Amino acid sequence: MSQYLADHGWITWIIIGLIAGAIAKAIMPGKDPGGCLVTIVLGIAGALLAGFLGQALGWYGPGEGAGFIAAIVGSLIILGIYRLVARR
Q1: What is the mean pLDDT of the chain?
Q2: Whole-prediction pTM
Q3: Where exactly are the structural domains of the chain?
């Protein structure tokens, strides 16, 4: 999957981010400020977070991105943090 993302660039990251963010919002339903753009940003941030944590833990090599499931988990983490910050 990471080679696919490297080959197709930002458009693929946006699509994966949209899907991962939408799945994260489906898993954690509730009122969230923001719409489709926030969902995409949450998904992309989740994928980046998952890749960073995976590299720090030795699960991924340098330059290797996170998988789709990890992107969803990362999106859930980012969504939880976003909800805590947005409430204040």
Answers
A1: 75
A2: 0.72
A3: 2-87
